[in-house]
Amino acid sequence: MHSAKWMVGGMAAMAVALLAVRAGAPMMNGMTVFHYQMRDQMDVTGVEPGVMGSVAGQFKQSGPQTNQMLQIKCSGLQTGMPYYVMAQLDSDTNLTQLATFMAGPKGKALVTFIPGTGAALTPNMGGMGGGGMGGGGTNHVGGGTMPFPGMMNTMMDASTVAIANSSTQTVLMADLMNPAMFQFMTNSRMHNDGVLTNATGSLQMRATTRGQNFQLMANGLGSSNTYYMAVNGDIIGSMMSDAQGHLKLRTMPAGLTNMLDVSTFQIMDAGSNSVLSTLLP
Fold first, then answer.
1. Per residue in 20-72, pLDDT tens?
2. Cα separations in angstroms, 107 against 73, 79, 145
3. CA end-to-end span of the chain, whole Å?
4. Do the beta carbons of residue 98 and residue 134 sit within 8 Å?
5. pLDDT value of position 117
């Protein structure tokens, strides 16, 4: 059971420390604006009694500019013992090792991933163990701060993060795409895919733990034609343009259940040609 007071307080603090999501952020010169901010307590698997963990993340993209952070905080681990940060990446069903650390005093650890290159950057406290953090860095006691590893370019590449012990048993786990507290927003000018020269469109999606808002608009389409919406290549619904070739949808398509699952969104014609599309992180 999540503590609502702790979670809300944590979200407020993260909003100050990070680049908070602005629900009304505008589209910037036709580019995609994408914000995602989340926080959750990690699920305890029961392998090591008394452990606790939380995860917080933020991803912000405005056109070509990206800023992100992923932080995992643990307590109750076995002091001085090695642990691994694992993640389920993209469609892979297996967990991939991202980093190694040693539990600090009282079994505490704080591991933070930030943009950058190279090995681990800053240890959280004195003392070092053997091995490497993230493959070639320093295995810091109590965790540390390091760049996102090469196999995980952004936090949006990971659907799940976990902490595993030296026996590779999962101790803590969290679902990044279905957290207890989150804010999500994307405003995107859709790309004209060359089927209809004058076609333009925009996609706006916003979601929090309290609800979701969806808006799809397109102009320059064929008059009174049927078009199809596709998410990640799969058709999720259809709609008809009006006599002027305009299209507007303000309700969530029945085939779209989780906005965070969207990587590509397309408007397709009856011949399965992509008329307008957008690519999300």
1. 223 333 333 356 899 999 999 999 999 999 999 999 999 999 888 889 999 99
2. 11, 4, 18
3. 30
4. yes
5. 53
Closest C-alpha among 191, 186, 165 to residue 261: 186
CB 94 within 8 A of CB 168: no
Beta strand spans in 141-259 (E): 143-147, 158-164, 170-175, 181-189, 191-192, 200-208, 211-219, 226-231, 234-240, 247-249
Angle 257-263-265 (CA atoms, 0-180°, nearest 5)? 75
C-alpha 217/C-alpha 234 separation (Å) is 19
Mean pLDDT, the chain, integer: 82
The residues near 143 (Cβ < 8 Å, ≥ 6 apart) are 72, 74, 101, 104, 109, 110, 111, 112, 123, 124
What values do phi and psi take at 224, rounded to 5?
A: 50, 45
Eight-state DSSP code of residue 134? T
Give the whole-angstrom CA distance, residue 241 versus residue 264. Answer: 21
Distance CA 43, CA 141 (A): 23
Does residue 154 contact residue 176 with C-beta atoms inside 8 Å?
no
Q: Which amino acid is at 143?
A: G
pLDDT at 138: 43
* Alpha helices for the chain (secondary structure H): 4-17
Amino acid 19: pLDDT:
30
Question: What is the four-CA torsion angle of 257, 259, 262, 264, rounded to 10 degrees?
Answer: 110
At 106, phi and psi to the nearest 5? Answer: 60, 20
